[in-house]
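INFO  loader      accepted 1 record
INFO  loader      residues=208
INFO  predictor   begin
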Amino acid sequence: MCLKFRFDNIAAILCLAAFSASTYAGEASLNLEFPSPAYTASSFSSNSPPLMVALNEVNDVKDQNAIPSSSKAEFEPSFFTGSNLHKYLGLGTVALAIATAVAPKPPEIEDRLPTPAEVSAQDSSTHAKLGRATATMAAATVASGLITHWGDFHLEDGITDPDNLHALLGAAGALAIMYAVSKAPDEGHAGKGIFGGIAMGVAVKLTW
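INFO  predictor   done
INFO  writer      dumping tokens
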């Protein structure tokens, strides 16, 4: 009886040992144990560069969007405009009027009619050529002013208004210059030409 009891105990122990071994093998294959903190940190650090690159790209986009608008090229108006053309024509007229006044004049002929040669010499002189160029440019100045600044002229503002005074003096000066050229080389044309040049100079100064 005692021997049988011992044999049963030994068999039970062997069965328990076999069951424990099979259970341990199953747990080892599943390995549901949480990773250690050190392993988690190392795994995250190894996968972090793509995330850091993505964050840097987002920051770069923000920096590019934050570029101030002042870095953009500023708009520059065109140099060749109707207003600029009128202004430079006026300055050219005044310059030509001064050049005409100081240019050497042909000798005046008194008490007789000039000969054809003398008339040709007067027409081809530097003074006469500059006078005709001044009259032409004065007419172009007035025409360009009427085209580009017609809306600036208002009689209800009075003659003393700078725009109105500019227009009146410019037109009067151009007419005086053209009249002086048409009467040359008669005596007295020089005074009319000088008056026209001064009037146009004042007109330019008013709106400079």
